[in-house]
Structure formats: structure tokens, C-alpha cells
Amino acid sequence: MSNSNAILFRWSGSKVNIKVALEPYKPVIFIGFNNTLKSITARMIIAILASQGLIDDSWSLPKRNWQEYLSKIVTSLSEGSSPVIEVAEAVKEKKLGYILIEDSRVALRKYLETREQYHSAIDELQKKINKIDLIQLRSDITRGFETVESIVNEISLGIASIYSALKLKAYMRSSALYIRMLEDIVKDITKSLYKDVQREELVEENMLPLDVEVEIDECGEKRVTVIDTRTHEQISEVAISTSVSSMLLFKTLALAMSIPIPKLVVIEEPEYALAPLQQIVLARFIGASLSKAKELGHITYMILVTHSPYIALGVENAKVYYFMYSPKERKFVAEESWPAREFALASLLMLRLGAQV
User: Which terminus of the chain is less hemmed in, N or C, by CB atoms within 10 Å?
Assistant: First the structure.
């Protein structure tokens, strides 16, 4: 391999022909239309690394049965033909932790909106259970409720669970450095954006208006607190918008980057619930944080799965793969290219039309 820390992933089968190369500090972007195996490929990279014992489970998040995932996807898409991964000896010796920030972040908002209603229903059912004389039955049903609640929390809280777990592992001084970097990027973009605007015409919007914290109470339950930095007031759960998960995305990324061990960070559809200007902030933050990681010697690989031209065009030093179904090959393929045919042309057309409005 030309790069001593490169990771080469190859997946060939009856329905797929995908090759992806990862290098530390060089963001890899998967773009393309829906249902072209972008997210599946990103997860398969984690799965095949895990199957070969190259993943450090001590802090990787979220915990998954990657062997089972690998088996199901291989059976479905490549008739048992498993992907192959080529990893340099330098990477094998260190192993990699991973952080997977999934595209299910919208679930966090729904969890916050319905938490009180959910717990009220659980309490009512618990009262009915307590009237049952059969102690063993009551115990079994209670355990069943606890198991279901645990699963719902894990799925629904998603990024909040990852954020709270990372907070226990992250280096606070280092994560503060990344947060300051983010704040500087926001200020720089704001200053550049409004440099030609008269002060009396200027309304400077806060591009990151929320402060989000996740705490674990005495019962072990995660509590998400959201503060509006403009009014300095806590936002009621019923009034929360999808932006809560977006603010956690920035904070989670800063915490993830602060951990010094070799790692793979995968972010699925980071544009969700981000305004275009916020997407530009995120793109610049990703580039700056990877540069800082390189400066500090913290080996970091990153995959972004996105539909956003703002992110795909805005991340510096990125390698772009265009995912598509090839009628000629009758397979799903990934081409290393940018602009990427119809997808990129449509995106650029959208930007041009928007500039003319």
C-alpha cells in the first residue's frame, strides 16, 4: 500500500462491486441517491474490521453484533461472498475504536416529546401488576418492562447515549479545544457573510442556538436538558424541535475527536435538521478538526454519508465516492469521482438556481 496507514475495502458479489480506500485525516464522502448502499457500505467496513479482530471494543459506540450484521448483509447482497479488507500492519497493531452516528437522530426528538406520556403509561401498568398475587409473574413482567424500556431508550436516545458515554471517556481539555475551534469557525463565517451588509440592515442569527446536555440521574436514566442560548432559558420538552439532535451532533463530534486512540468516525446524513449555513459550518469544522487531529498525532479515519452538496463540496481535502446502481454491470457500484454525474450536476444546478432567486 502506498499509504502505510491506508485501509482498503473491497466487496464483490452478485449485486455489488464496491471498492473504498480510507486514509487517516482524509475525510471520505459517500454521495448518491437513496438506496444505493451508502450507509450499508459504511457499516460493513466496521463489521468486517470487527470480524477480523481489528476493532477496539473497549469504547466503540454504539455496541452492535457486527458478525450477525455482516452475515445477514452478505447473504442478502452478495450470496455469501464476504468483503475483503486490507489493513497495514501499523493499523493492525493499534486496532481501531469506532463511533457510528446514525441517521436515526430524529428519534431523539420524538423520545423527548413522548417521554412523560410513556412513563405515565408504564407507571399505570406497574400499579396493575402490583395487584397480582403471583410474585413470580409480577417479577417476570417487571423485568420485561425494564428490558423493553432499555431497548426503547437505546434506540430513541441514540446520539444522546453516545454523547453521554463519550463524555466519560473524552479528554475535557482536548474537547474544549475542539469546541473553541467550532466557535471560531462560526464567528469567521458570520463575519465573512455580513462584511458587505450595512449595520442597520444586519440581523445576526445564532447559527448554533442551543446548548444541549445529557445527564444520568440516580436511577441511571438519561435526562436531556436543552437551553436556548438566546433567551438563556430551558426549553420545555414539548417545544423542542429537531435542532436538538443537530446541536448534539456538533458536540458529539468534538468529544469524539478529542479521544487520542486510533478511531473511525462514521456520520450518516449529518445534514438532517441543519440549515444550509449550519451545514457549511459543519463541513469546515470537520476539515479543521481532522487537521488538528493530524497535528496532535491522533489517527482518525472519517466517513460521511450525505445527500448534501453543501457538505460534499465544503469539506476540505475530501475523497468522494459516488454510489449508484449500474445497469451495465447490474450491480451497485461506487465510483471515486467528483463531480459525480447526475447527482452532482443536479446539486450544482440547484445551487445556481438558488443564487438567481
Answer: C
